[in-house]
Amino acid sequence: MALLVKTSTLPNSGKGLFTSKPIKKSEKIIEYKGEIIDWKEYEKRVKEDKDGYLFYISKKRCIDAYATPQYKARYANDAKGLSKVKGLKNNASYEIKGEQCFVIAERDIKAGEEIFVGYGKEYWDCIRYNIKHKLYKTKHK
Questions:
Q1: What's the average model confidence in pLDDT over 104-129?
Q2: How many other β-carbons are positioned within 10 Å of the β-carbon of residue 90?
Q3: Which helix (H) or strand (E) holds 107?
Q4: Distance between CA 119 and CA 39 in Å, rounded?
């Protein structure tokens, strides 16, 4: 898969993940990779302000891509997030297979398009809470 990291089409989102080749619906785009930690370790990192790229599989297995920018899946943004752009919709989803997580195409994606994947309601509820309580700093991506 030919994936590129460049400035996102979403305002205030930093970098985004783009494809240089067409991707067919249901195709695996990329595996979400990072350091494997448990939930207790992740909570510790949150307190140290070293968080933002976690994929939760279970309390004993979380994928933390915060310190691993070489793994490109972390750059896939959510089109339904805080900065919405009319006409942009998520075109991919996360799929857990065993102890791995993959980004999967929900529709055919054209060459040059940005990959958008839903982070889930719980994620955005947490971000909104943190913004409201001034706990969230714009540090992502």
A1: 90
A2: 18
A3: none
A4: 18
CB 95 within 8 A of CB 57: no
What's the longest Cα–Cα distance across the chain? Answer: 42
The pLDDT value given to residue 137: 54
Q: Which two tokens stand for residue 63?
A: 């994928």
Instruction: Using the structure block, give the residue that is written with the tokens 């494809």.
Output: 19
Query: Which domains are delineated in the chain?
Result: 3-29+65-132 (2.170.270.10)
Q: What is the pTM of this model?
A: 0.86
At residue 140, the pLDDT reads: 47
Rounded distance, CA 21 to CA 89, Å?
19
Which amino acid belongs to residue 57? Answer: I
C-alpha 59/C-alpha 38 separation (Å) is 6
